[in-house]
């Protein structure tokens, strides 16, 4: 007897004792409305008309492959980035200012991302306009570096206000410093002008100092962590820390500077120690504020940030070839497909 010959019955389906929909019972098979599955399990689906196929995923996002990384190469597939479509407005010199609810400000990380996007486009397509935009960013970083060697954020930041007090301006961010290092290392390589790299080396000092004059935090009073948001207590934001490590690697490789290399190595020791704390068994945590404050529950990374964690971890694994990173990378990639330990 075929499925189509069975009696079709309407049935009530209750999911998690919260959500209800009418489904179907055909013979011994039960058919649940896709909208109920999406609501109950936060899944994502796509209908492919040409294949007559419905695909259901925990997320449609997929990580891009990064098995090799060079400081002078494409930056984490940033040729696929589009800062122009972010919430930014460009100044008269072509530098993006980020638009916040409280005003427009230069965000060093966003500016550096714009530069890395256009470096990656130039590296891929040899487009002279992208090269020009990249050097605009590199020169902005040179012109706006302060006496402490960094690029301060000149606005107060309410990072996780339910758990932490606002960060008061001016402050430094490891993600901004690290990405600036990645820009200036590439600018030095592309122009053969060592001044770009030498100026980036000035930022080393900020990785050795605690806030407000630096980005250093200590995990377990021993391990050096570079803070994206220098909160009190530390928030330990994972993506910002790993972006900083990539920047330190780029600069250390370009210059062979011993201090930069030591800062990178210290950070990698920390990453290996702390990595399991971000693994939630089906996704990653964005930070560790559930541990450092009375928050009580993990700040689960959105899928886009989870993919960013994968790209950064793949990059750091490509340069360190560490078995612990490799195993974590496989787990985190498997989570995109609904696979859990």
Walkthrough of the structure:
40% of the residues lie in helices and 14% in strands. The protein has 341 residues and is an alpha+beta fold. It folds into two domains: 3-57, no CATH class; 78-335, Glycosyltransferase, CATH 1.50.10. α9 packs antiparallel against α10. The longest helix has 18 residues, at 108-125. It is globular. The chain starts with 7 loop residues before the first strand and ends in a 6-residue tail after the last helix.
Characteristics of this structure?
341 residues, 2 domains, 3-stranded antiparallel sheet, 10 helices, heparosan-N-sulfate-glucuronate 5-epimerase activity, C5-epimerase, 6-hairpin_glycosidase_sf
Arithmetic mean of pLDDT: 95
Q: What is the number of domains? A: 2
Helical region count?
Answer: 10
Report the order of strands and helices.
EEEHEEEEEHHHHEEHHHHH
Shape: globular
- Indicate the percent of residues in helices: 40-55%
Organism: Radiobacillus deserti
Pfam families: C5-epim_C
Domain D-glucuronyl C5-epimerase C-terminal: 145-333
GO molecular function, one term: heparosan-N-sulfate-glucuronate 5-epimerase activity
């Amino acid at each position: 007897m075929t499925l189509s010959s069975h009696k079709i019955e309407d049935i009530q389906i209750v999911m998690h004792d919260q959500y209800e929909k009418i489904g179907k019972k055909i013979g011994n098979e039960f058919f649940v409305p896709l909208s109920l599955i999406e609501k109950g399990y936060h899944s994502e689906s796509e209908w492919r008309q040409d294949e007559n196929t419905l695909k259901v995923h925990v997320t449609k996002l997929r990580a891009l492959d990064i098995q090799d990384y060079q400081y002078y190469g494409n930056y984490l597939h940033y040729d696929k980035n589009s800062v122009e479509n972010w919430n930014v407005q460009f100044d008269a010199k072509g530098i993006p200012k980020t638009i916040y609810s409280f005003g427009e400000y230069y965000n060093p990380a966003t500016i550096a991302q714009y530069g890395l996007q256009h470096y990656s486009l130039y590296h891929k397509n040899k487009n002279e306009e992208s090269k020009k935009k990249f050097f605009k960013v590199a020169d902005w970083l040179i012109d706006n570096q302060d006496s402490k060697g960094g690029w301060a954020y000149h606005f107060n930041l309410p990072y996780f206000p339910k758990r932490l007090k606002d960060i008061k301006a001016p402050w430094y961010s490891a993600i901004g410093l690290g990405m600036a290092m990645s820009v200036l290392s590439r600018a030095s390589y592309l122009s053969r002008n060592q001044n770009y790299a030498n100026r980036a080396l000035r930022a080393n000092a900020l990785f050795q100092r605690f806030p407000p004059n630096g980005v250093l935090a200590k995990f377990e009073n021993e391990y050096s962590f570079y803070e994206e948001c220098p909160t009190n207590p530390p928030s330990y934001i994972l993506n910002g820390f790993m972006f900083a490590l990539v920047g330190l690697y780029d600069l250390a490789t370009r210059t062979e500077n011993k201090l930069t290399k030591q800062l990178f190595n210290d950070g990698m020791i920390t990453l290996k120690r702390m990595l399991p704390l971000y693994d939630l068994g089906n996704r990653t945590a964005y930070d560790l504020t559930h541990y450092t404050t009375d928050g009580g529950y993990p700040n689960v990374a959105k899928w886009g940030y989870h993919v960013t964690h994968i790209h950064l971890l793949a990059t750091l694994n490509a340069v360190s070839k560490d078995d612990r990173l490799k195993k974590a990378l496989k787990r985190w990639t498997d989570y995109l497909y609904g696979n859990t330990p």
